[in-house]
Structure formats: C-alpha cells, structure tokens
Amino acid sequence: MRTIGTLTALGIAIGGCAAVSVEPRRPFGEVSAVVKERTGREIAWQSKEGADDAEVRKLLEGGLTADRAIEIALLNNRDLQAMYSDLGVAQSDLVQASLLHNPVLAAGSAFPVGGGAVDVSLGLAVDVIDLFYGPRRKRVAGAALEEATSRVAGDVLDTAWRAETAFTRHQADEQMLEMRRRVAESTATSFEIARRLRAAGNATELSVVTEQALAEEAKLELRLAEIGARQSREQLSSLLGLSGGTVEWKIASARLPDPPEKPPDVDRIEARAVERSLDLKAAKARSAALAEQLGLERSSGLFPEFIVGGRGDRDRGDWQSGPSLQIPVPLFDRGQARVSRATAELERARNLSQALEVRVRSTARASRDRLIGHHDRAVYYRSVALPLRERIVNEAGLQYNAMQLGPFDLLKAKEQQVEAGMRYVEALRDYWLAAADLGLILAGHLPTLEPAPPPAPIEGIRRFPFPTVP
To answer: How confident is the model over 351-365, as a mean pLDDT?
Structure first.
C-alpha cells in the first residue's frame, strides 16, 4: 500500500499547488486603462441591477448633449455590459488551462461464489501529461484573453461612437423638423394670400390651387420630419439603455454646432490608424493563439494522455500493490485531423488579419476624404450659399416695399432661404458624422452598424477529464 499512499500524497500536493482563484473581472482593468488613454473616459462594470437610476437622471438634467449621451451609454448600455462578460469567460479559460486534471480514485471488489474473503482492489492515478502540455495550453488561453481584451476595448469605443452618431442624427432631425415647420407655415401663408386675392378677383384659380398643393406637400414633409425625429429619438434612448421615466429626456440644443474653420489633422492617417487599431491587435492575438493551438495539437497528437498511478489488490486476505500505467495506443487517431483543422484555422486567421489591415487603411483614407469633403461643403454653405440667400430675401423685401414684387415672390425667396438652411443642416450632419467616424478609427476601431458577435472560442482551452482508471 505504500505506492498508493505515496501517490495520494503527491496528488494532494499537486492539487494544492494548482489551486488558482478565478477573478473574472481582472482583465477589465486593462480594458478600462485602454479606454481611458484613448478617450479620456471612465467605464464601469455594473452589477446585475445595472446603473443607478439616480445617476442617469442626474446626467439627463439640463438637457442631453453629445458628451452626456456618450457617458450614459458607457454607463448604462446593457449590450456593452454583457460584452464585459467575455472577459470573465476568457479569464476563466486561462485559469482552467493552468489547472491539472484531478487524480482519479478507483475501487472495486469481487465476491467469491463459494464463499470466503472478499477480494478488494484500489487504485489512484494522475494524468502527468498535464505537466508537459499545461504551459502550452496556458499560452493558448493567454493569447485568447489578449484577443478578448482588445476586442472588448474596441466594443467600448464602438458604443461611444454609436452614442455620438445617434445623438448627432437626432439633433439634425430636430433642427430639420423646426425648418420644416417654417416651410409649412410659409406655404400656408402663401395659400391664404392666394385665396384672399382670388376672392377679391386679383388671382386666378390656378394660382390658388398651385399654392394649396404646395402647402399640402409641405404638411406631408413636416409629418415625415416628425416621424424621423421620433425614430432617431427612440434609437438614441435604446442605445443609452433608457426606460421608464428616463425616456422623457430633452435635448439641450436642437442646433448642430458649426464646423471649425479647418478640419482636424489628417496627416499620416493610414499609419496612425494601423498603429492604433485594436481590431488588428485582436486579430494578431487570435493568430498567435491559433499558432500555439497548432503546436499543441502536433505535440499531443500521439500522446494525448499519460496516466500513471498505483493500485493495490487484496487477494484472500493478503494485500499486493504496484504501479499502473495507461498510454493510448495511436493506432487509429494520431491527431492528424486535429492538426489539419488547426492549420486551416490558423491560415484563415492570418488571411483575415491581412484583409483587416487592408480594410483599416482603406476605411481611414475614405473617412479622411469624406471628412474634408463635407467640411468644405458645410463651410461653403455657411460662408457663400446662406449669405446669398439672406441677401436675396433682403432685396426682395425692399422691392416688395417698393411694390415692385408681389407677396408670392417674397414668400418664395424666404422658402428658398429655408431650403438652403436645410441643406446646410444636412451638410453639418454629414460633417459631424464623418468626424465621429474618423475619431473612432484613430481611437482604434472600425465603424460598425451593429456590434459584431464574438468569434468562436479556440478549441483546446477547455478540457474533459481523462477516463477512469480501472
């Protein structure tokens, strides 16, 4: 029985050394540091109940701004909070990869048919192959954790970007709605003037019907603007995780800010985008994990298990003990399929990483060009088109006062001024959306419409217990 006693003590010692506590929130600190460095914002991993409602209400006081929208989204967006759990999964996989298999205790007995002493057998075995493959499994899990950390940090940046762009769209919709109201009021006034002139015999029926048609079309456009503003409001509320009483928020200003005189710095845009890309960092970490996985499959193909132990048998009252050994015979499965799969997955990951770099560079160039183009467009409206429309309205007013123009001409000039203002709002919206896109790229993440699902877990990190030793 000395062999079993020795192995029992060895198993307890190994188990004590392998005892590792699981801290699922440990990688969150690294994500928080990355977000802080790149955006200057703090993030928090909320409890199951979510963010404090009073804290959200306080941020909504005084009206919602783009900055407050981002802060609320990072605090209260439940999709983002769910993504943080990916860090706990990856951290748990790393801990699991650091653990050894539990020793297996086997026991059996035999009852003689003719009576007599009962035969008893005891065995204790340990899969010592973990001592050789454990470090590589840990490297696989470590690379997977690094990938998850970069990916989740990118998800945080993406959430902030979506909050900013959703707020910009809603702000533009609110400003457009106000201008549509002005157009509807102007066309309604034109129709009323035409109707009165017709009653006095100074206008044709055609002019009255024409002005009425314009007024009715303006009502339809106003209704469409109301729908758009309501929809963008609900999209923003959903993104901010607002419900109950918090959905009755108000926007601080329904006017988009004017563009700066010069667009942001766009020098070395490609190099800066590649250097800062968390997407590329995550893709490279995944390739590293798959490379380690391929090495693990190659080394463990012939010897996935190496189980040593001891056993003791009592035969007719006498105990006999000795060592035991279990090694799978690689007769059919020599790991060739697992190696082939791991090779294919690694090749795919490397190709996707290269394709991602191309996409990062292309998206950075396109965002730069779009930003510059919309900046020039917005500045042109502000400095040329709108002043011209204002001058036209002023001149039309002078000629109307001198009775050289009719009321329809003056109202038409004002409507055209408002139409030019709406096009300026569209230019402003496009510029600030382009600025948000470029800011996200330089922060390290490609713009997306919806949060991408996490990649499939890397095989080999989670392990199943080895068979019970007879």
So the answer is: 94
